[in-house]
Amino acid sequence: MKITFIGGGNMATALIGGMKKQGFSAAGIQVVEPFIDARELITESFGVRSVAAVDAAALNCDVLVLAVKPQQMKAAVAPLAGKLTHQVVLSIAAGLRVADMAAWLGYGKIVRAMPNTPALIGAGITGLFADPSVDAEERRQAEKILQAVGVSVWVDDEAQMDVVTAISGSGPAYVFYFIEAIESVARTLGLDAESARQLTVQTFLGAAQLAAKSSERIATLRERVTSKGGTTEAALQAFAAQGVAAAIAQGVMAANARGRELGETLGRQGAGKSNS
C-alpha cells in the first residue's frame, strides 16, 4: 500500500511513526509539506520522501491522507481537483463533511476520520465514516493507517461523526480538566505539587486501564469503590448535589452542536475556525 500525506504536522508524523513501527516501508510513504523545515525533519526522522507540492509521484498512491487544518483544506486540495482516479482519500480534518470535500476535489471516494491527541503516543481512538463508494478493501486500508496509532470505530451515519468529535475528539480535554481540578485541590489540602500530580494522573490512568480490561459495567466498578458511609460516597453525593453529571452532559451536547455548526460553516465557506 502506497500512502501520500498532504500536510506534515503532528498527527501526520504520529501516523507515520506508528506505521513504521508496524512494519510499513518508508519507500511507500510520501509527504507533501510546503514548509522546508518540516520537510527536512520528516525526511530525517522517517526516511520518507517529502516534497513542497503535489507532483506525479505523490499522486502515485493508494491512499491520500489529508492532514491539514480544516480552515486550510479547500486551498490545500485545490491542486488535486480533477487529478484523482482510484485513490482512497482519508481526511483527518475535524468537522469537514464528505460532500463538501467531494465538491472541492471533484471526487467522492472519501473516508472521514476523527482521531484524538492520545494518537501522538499510540493510544488514540479514531471514529471513521466512509462514503458508500468506498469498498470493503479500501475501508480496510484506511483503518490500517489509523490503527497504527490506536483503535478505531466505524459509524454508519456521518452525522454521528459530530458525536464522535464531542466524545473522543474533545474528550482528552475533559479528562485533563478533571485532572487539573483534582490536582489543584490535592495541593490545597497540603500535598506538594509533584505528589499531587503523580497521585492524580496515575489514578486516572489506572482507572481507565481497569475499565478497559474489565467486562463489567462501569457503574459496577464505581460501586465497588463506594462503601456505604465512606469517603467515596461522601464525594459522590457532593458531586450529585452540585449537578456534576448534568454539567458534563451539557458540555458534551454543546460540543456536538458546535461540531454541526462548524461543518456547515466550513462547507459553505471553505474557511473558518475549528477546534476539537
From TrEMBL:
GO molecular-function terms, A-Z: pyrroline-5-carboxylate reductase activity
InterPro entries: 6-PGluconate_DH-like_C_sf, NAD(P)-bd_dom_sf, P5C_Rdtase_cat_N, P5CR_dimer, Pyrroline-COOH_reductase
Protein name: Pyrroline-5-carboxylate reductase
Species per Swiss-Prot/TrEMBL record: Rugosibacter aromaticivorans
NCBIfam families per UniProt: proC
Gene3D superfamilies: NAD(P)-binding Rossmann-like Domain, ProC C-terminal domain-like
Main location: cytoplasm
NADP keyword on record: yes
Family: Belongs to the pyrroline-5-carboxylate reductase family.
Gene Ontology BP, a term: L-proline biosynthetic process
